[in-house]
């Protein structure tokens, strides 16, 4: 396993997640200092899944991020391109319809989902804009998107402390708890290189999403972006 560089190749990203699949959730909880659970609750609230709605959880990994939507009675499709993550997910949640697919070429028809969501995955996709366009394509007119991703703390002094945590504290902690610490060095570097909140909102708008807005969590360590697919024009 080689370490993925920031201009990561899709097969390197998939291999990296294959490697960490078994201990992925534990490592997340430790490295986020317990915040991961709060972030997941906020995502569930933002998506607002209702019974019988069809929800795509893209880059779902082991489908930990999919559970709140299933609990709300929605039909959730967890989709990911790491077979290691999908296998581990299927072992834990045998009844969920895990689907192998690349975010930039989704294996779904147009307009089939009421809501699409992606948690801690968009940053890893090699072509962000294609993924945003694909998410739009598979969403029904009037449907919604929620993106949960690491972002940039809004208060400058906190931003400095956090940046130090990412680059100095995270790699040794990751070495202690993870099966592949290199994946977490990549995590730190990719967070620093990711667009800030307004820049990601602009990318969503450019991809065709409307009503784009975001909410910061934990001071902006994470941001929840949301948007809506414009309704189809009514012919006079
Ligand atoms: C950090 S994990 C997030 C998993 C899950 N959403 C969660 O919140 O726990 C990121 C996932 O993105 C997936 N991924 C990265 N690039 C992808 C792509 N192009 N298509 C599909 N999945 C992708 C990886 O395989 C990995 O499982």
TrEMBL record:
Under SUPFAM superfamilies, the record lists: S-adenosyl-L-methionine-dependent methyltransferases (SSF53335)
User: Pfam families from the xrefs?
Assistant: Ubie_methyltran
Q: In which pathway does it act?
A: Quinol/quinone metabolism; menaquinone biosynthesis; menaquinol from 1,4-dihydroxy-2-naphthoate: step 2/2
Catalytic activity as recorded in UniProt: a 2-demethylmenaquinol + S-adenosyl-L-methionine = a menaquinol + S-adenosyl-L-homocysteine + H(+)
Q: Tell me which residues bind S-adenosyl-L-methionine.
A: 62, 80, 102-103, 119
Family in the record: Belongs to the class I-like SAM-binding methyltransferase superfamily. MenG/UbiE family.
PANTHER family linked: 2-METHOXY-6-POLYPRENYL-1,4-BENZOQUINOL METHYLASE, MITOCHONDRIAL, METHYLTRANSFERASE
Q: What is this protein called?
A: Demethylmenaquinone methyltransferase
Q: Which species does this protein come from?
A: Streptomyces pathocidini
């Amino acid at each position: 396993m080689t370490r993925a560089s920031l201009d990561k190749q899709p097969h390197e990203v998939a291999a990296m997640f294959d490697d960490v699949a078994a201990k992925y959730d534990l490592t997340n909880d430790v490295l986020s200092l317990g915040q991961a659970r709060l972030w997941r609750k906020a995502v569930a609230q933002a998506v607002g899944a209702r019974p019988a709605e069809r929800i795509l959880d893209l880059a779902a990994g082991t489908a930990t991020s999919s559970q709140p939507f299933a609990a709300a009675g929605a039909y959730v499709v967890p989709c990911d391109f790491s077979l290691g993550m999908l296998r581990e997910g299927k072992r834990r949640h045998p009844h969920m319809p895990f689907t192998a697919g690349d975010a930039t070429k989704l294996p779904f028809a147009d307009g089939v989902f009421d809501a699409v969501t992606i948690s801690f995955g968009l940053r890893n996709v090699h072509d962000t804009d294609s993924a945003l366009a694909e998410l739009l394509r598979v969403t029904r007119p009037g449907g919604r998107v929620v993106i949960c991703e690491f972002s940039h703390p809004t208060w400058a002094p906190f931003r400095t402390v956090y940046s130090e945590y990412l680059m100095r504290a995270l790699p040794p902690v990751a070495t202690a708890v993870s099966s592949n610490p290199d994946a977490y060095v990549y995590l730190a570097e990719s967070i620093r290189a990711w667009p800030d909140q307004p820049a990601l909102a602009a990318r969503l708008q450019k991809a065709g999403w409307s009503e784009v807005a975001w909410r910061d969590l934990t001071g902006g360590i994470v941001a929840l972006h949301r948007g809506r697919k414009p309704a189809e024009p009514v012919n006079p």
